[in-house]
Amino acid sequence: MPVSGLPPYDDQNIFARILRGEIPCKKVFENAFALAFHDIHPQAPVHVLVIPKGPYCSFADFSASASEAEIAGFIRAVGSVAKDLGLEAPGYRLLANMGEQSGQEVPHFHVHLFGGRPLGRMIPAA
Ligand code: AMP
Known about the structure:
The protein is α+β, with helices and mostly antiparallel strands. Helix content is 24%, strand content 19%. The chain is built from three helices and five strands. It has a five-stranded antiparallel beta sheet, covered by helices on one side. Strand 1 and strand 2 form a beta hairpin. The chain is globular, with a radius of gyration of 14 Å. Bound molecules: adenosine monophosphate. Adenosine monophosphate (AMP) binds next to loops.
């Protein structure tokens, strides 16, 4: 369910369509809880998106409404993807945009996983 005051889940968003197999993705991981695929406009040598299988608009929605199994399954999937991509030793960054001021473009909760080079400061100057 959407968080009060935020729009309902749009099942035509691009990640919903990827989950349904209607459009392709460069998949790196999939299980019952999560799908991970390469970002179409990578901003680092490794830029992977990890998304939950369930219909959650954002982190706010997911954290408030997903079951404990979905939350645990998703978080473990993010960790597995990072490990399988060889990013634990050099390090990596996770980022989740939530809402208008963050610049969230796709209204299906997703975590960006960046790595493959020194990533600099957390938030570049606007
Ligand atoms: P955000 O601004 O946090 O909503 O990030 C959305 C991300 O989705 C951006 O980094 C886009 O490059 C990425 N993206 C949009 N469409 C696709 C797609 N079809 N396949 C892979 N990544 C996509």
